[in-house]
Amino acid sequence: MSEAVTLRAPAFRREPGKLWIVPPAALLALLFFYPLVLIARQAFLDDRGVANVAEVIRVLHSRFFLNALINTVSISVAATAGCLVVGLVLALILAFVPFPGSGFIARLIDTFIALPTFLVTLAFTFLYGSAGMLNAGLMETFSLPLPPVDFLYSAWGVILAEVTVYTPFILRPLLAAFSLVDRGQIEAASVLGARPFRIVRQVILPAAIPALIAGGSLCLLLTVNEFGIVLFIGAKGVITLPLLIYGKAIQESAYQVACIIAVVNIALSLGLFGLYRFAAGRLGA
Amino acid sequence: MSAAAFTGTSVMDIDAAKVRGAGSNVHFDKVSVAYGAHVVLHPLTLDIAPGEILAMIGPSGSGKTTALRAVAGFVRPASGRIRIGATDVTDLPPYERGLGMVVQNYALFPHMRVEDNVAFGLRAQGADKALIGERIKDALGTVGMSAYARRYPRELSGGQQQRVAIARALAVRPRVLLLDEPLSALDAQIRRNMVEEIARLHRSLPGLTILYVTHDQTEALTLADKIAIMRDGRVCSHGPTTELYRRPPNRFTAEFLGRANLLPVTVAEAVGPKGFATARHGDALLTGAGRNEKAGDKSLLCIRPQHLSLTADSDHTNRIVGTLQEVHWQGELTHLVLDVDGTPVRVSATRLPIALPEPGAKVPLFFAPADTSLLPEDAGV
Amino acid sequence: MLVWSRSGRLVLWVLFALIFGVLFLAPLAVILLSSLADQWNGVLPNGLTTEHYTDVISGAAGRAVKASLVTGFLASALALVSGTWAALSLRLQGHALRRLLGLLFFIPSAVPSVSVGLGLLVAFSHPPLLLNGTIAIVMIAHFVLISAFTFGNVSAGLARLSPDFEQVASSLGARPAYRLWHVTLPLLAPYLVAAFGLSFALSMGELGATVMVYPPGWVTLPVSIFSLTDRGDIFAGAALTMILVVATLVLLLGLERITKRATGS
């Protein structure tokens, strides 16, 4: 023991391989981390480049910022909760009460991950908009003078759209987790007379919890960052942090304000990213 | 099924001179390997002669695979040197060591045909086309896989894939062939055939040095010229295969290599000029092959189950008596378990008396002094 | 089978059909329908027409499709090279550095796209790095946003690759470069193709960073869909969205087919 430890390893050929990481790392540093640092710096400089800390305090206490922050967090939490419920129900049926073609349907839902998020919002305009199919139908049927369904241009419209778009992110890890659940165990429990609800609670859910936590934290992150859905709905009262940054920078050219809000938004996102990595790490372990 | 059954040609038909391995010796000089403070291989000094098959066997975690990977260049020794032939390879990267390697899961490149797999090493080393073509033919012929050159690995059975993996290693004319548990992914029937084929292969390539790592003692006993038994990162014994089996130097070797009955004895008369000592086990005075035991030494008398007989023979001058406990008939062999003064003793018999004794009966057992070996009682290494 | 009674199963399937229909099927169907709608005053369109498609294709849409395809292709190709390069060279690092850098390469996927765009505007609006107003800044924005996905895909592929392949290749005399080109990269090919396909799809649908940085002459599909619908031309917007969806699906299915053929599985 002592001999092996005390004798130093001879100089193996020096590995120049360690330097190969430099080009991609440098590219990422220049194109991503450098701009990120500049956002943080710009948050403390006014648009002529003079230090202005008072502006930071003003923005952080402003009504438009606080409203956007509350909107962002509450929409994100509600949408994630919706995704978890819908994802769990769909996954349970797909995995344990399969029907002809359920495999194809699962893949179809999965391709929603690759589609642009605003597609759903645009579709919702046709479905639930003031001149959409649902309102037109209700107005014709009941001879109403005004469109009765009016949730689309509110936080509820954003939440419903986000549930559609982000449920596949819950469904994917859940189906993977369910595929590992021992079918024999479920059959044995059924033979012993356990009701389906009991089997779900005692056998299936424990297996799903890591996937729910990992998928849920990913959903939180993605919904906090969501931009397209909120932009397309374009409701006056529903402003989130990303939308506010866009408005301040592009429409008002108020770069310092945009950067201050961006710093908060990025910090929130990185915190959720940390949560997701932690959850996913536990899932993998 | 053997290679002959697959292809209609026999491995023995191949002209041995065409596929020579240019064998070199391998020398471990105080090689140790450690991961941080955890030592997986204690300083190991060992020689593999040119053309020799050395089997390293031992339980998992005993350091045998680490020793092989140190030769291949995948683990860096913490101390010591490794030489192949005249070259000190300790600081050479794997691709400059001139080896061939076969691993448990074959690791055939799935995107290449069989012939391209076999040609891989030569192409990587920039050999010319004519030579490559010739070597593909030779190597595939040697393992009886010529008919499968255009197939992809996924179209082959496990045994066939392992033959191709061996051909791929042979095609580069390695100085040393490293076989890392090459048969453990195969099922028992195919494994037995492959052991015989590797033995045949080595007869046709007598110059090829082979380091064969396995946990299976049957593979080692069938193939190896010499065996090194590893335990806890150390060589626990090392020697010619038959010698190690007949005269195990310690208890671990006796029990790991084949089955052994170990009777505790006290030496009564020291080893004489013919190499035999007399020892006392209870009332019985027994003669056994010894090393340098002296009168009064506590020792173990090792007797293999197949060397114990229920009937006396002219050279079976040793006799012990046990109580029969169990009888297991297995067709070719019958296994008996007896209790000899508290020591369980197993007997494997091919011929049995017509009237088999009942369990509980006192049964005499006979064995020849030449079939025994005295070894130190120390339970450690 | 969890639920044994026929009626119980039927109830669950109806529930599934309802959720699936409302959330997933209806949006796709209605986009398709509206892209073909002549006029739409009631529950269903008054008539069908391909006019919106001919309109958008003869108008700015052709240029938008081209801008999206070129941006997606170049950004994905760059992300593929850089992500593969990073994943491969990360294996040569020590344990601690590998974990840290692995995390850093993932972070771009966590930062909101609008902020990535904002950062690029702040960083590259002044000489010597004046990229604001060029096509390059759009490419860079897309590259940054998708780089983490290619890196992640390739890393996952590498983690699943048995080390035996590369070790056997080395022992047979293959130098690192030869081994990389003839063993590692071919074995990673399915993951590389999947990574490229996903990157391309993400780039095609990217909106947040693009609206921050795009120059007047380089309007991508999502941006032009937004400006169409913002003007109230939602039928043309739907037609353009269908073009985007079909282009994305054709691309993904095509790549999947190539992968299947190449790996023979």
From TrEMBL, chain A:
It is a multi-pass membrane protein. Belongs to the binding-protein-dependent transport system permease family. This is 2-aminoethylphosphonate ABC transporter, permease protein. InterPro entries: AminoethylPonate_ABC_perm-PhnU, MetI-like, MetI-like_sf. It comes from the Bacteria. Gene3D superfamilies: MetI-like (1.10.3720.10). Keywords: Cell inner membrane, Cell membrane, Membrane, Transmembrane, Transmembrane helix, Transport. The chain crosses the membrane at residues 21-44, 64-97, 109-131, 151-171, 203-223, 229-247, 254-276. It holds the Pfam family BPD_transp_1. Residues 69-276 form the ABC transmembrane type-1 domain. One of its GO terms (cellular component) is plasma membrane. Its main location: membrane. CDD domains: TM_PBP2 (cd06261). GO terms for biological process: 2-aminoethylphosphonate transport; transmembrane transport. It comes from Mesorhizobium ciceri biovar biserrulae (strain HAMBI 2942 / LMG 23838 / WSM1271). It is found in: Cell inner membrane; Cell membrane. The lineage of its organism: Bacteria, Pseudomonadati, Pseudomonadota, Alphaproteobacteria, Hyphomicrobiales.
Automatic annotation (TrEMBL), chain B:
GO terms for cellular component: ATP-binding cassette (ABC) transporter complex. GO terms for molecular function: ATP binding; ATP hydrolysis activity; transmembrane transporter activity. PROSITE patterns: ABC_TRANSPORTER_1, ABC_TRANSPORTER_2. Residues 26-257 form the ABC transporter domain. InterPro entries: AAA+_ATPase (IPR003593), ABC_SmlMolc_Importer (IPR050093), ABC_transporter-like_ATP-bd (IPR003439), ABC_transporter-like_CS (IPR017871), Mo/tungstate-bd_C_term_dom (IPR008995), P-loop_NTPase (IPR027417), Transp-assoc_OB_typ2 (IPR013611). One of its GO terms (biological process) is quaternary ammonium group transport. The keyword Translocase does not apply. Keywords: ATP-binding, Nucleotide-binding, Transport. It comes from the Bacteria. The keyword Transcription regulation does not apply. Belongs to the ABC transporter superfamily. PANTHER family: SPERMIDINE/PUTRESCINE IMPORT ATP-BINDING PROTEIN POTA (PTHR42781), SPERMIDINE_PUTRESCINE IMPORT ATP-BINDING PROTEIN POTA (PTHR42781:SF4). This is ABC transporter related protein. It comes from Mesorhizobium ciceri biovar biserrulae (strain HAMBI 2942 / LMG 23838 / WSM1271).
TrEMBL record, chain C:
It comes from Mesorhizobium ciceri biovar biserrulae (strain HAMBI 2942 / LMG 23838 / WSM1271). The lineage of its organism: Bacteria, Pseudomonadati, Pseudomonadota, Alphaproteobacteria, Hyphomicrobiales. It is found in: Cell inner membrane; Cell membrane. Keywords: Cell inner membrane, Cell membrane, Membrane, Transmembrane, Transmembrane helix, Transport. Its main location: membrane. InterPro entries: MetI-like (IPR000515), MetI-like_sf (IPR035906). It is a multi-pass membrane protein. The chain crosses the membrane at residues 12-37, 67-88, 100-124, 130-151, 188-214, 234-255. Belongs to the binding-protein-dependent transport system permease family. It comes from the Bacteria. The keyword Hydrolase does not apply. The keyword Transmembrane applies. This is Binding-protein-dependent transport systems inner membrane component. GO terms for cellular component: plasma membrane. Residues 65-253 form the ABC transmembrane type-1 domain. One of its GO terms (biological process) is transmembrane transport.
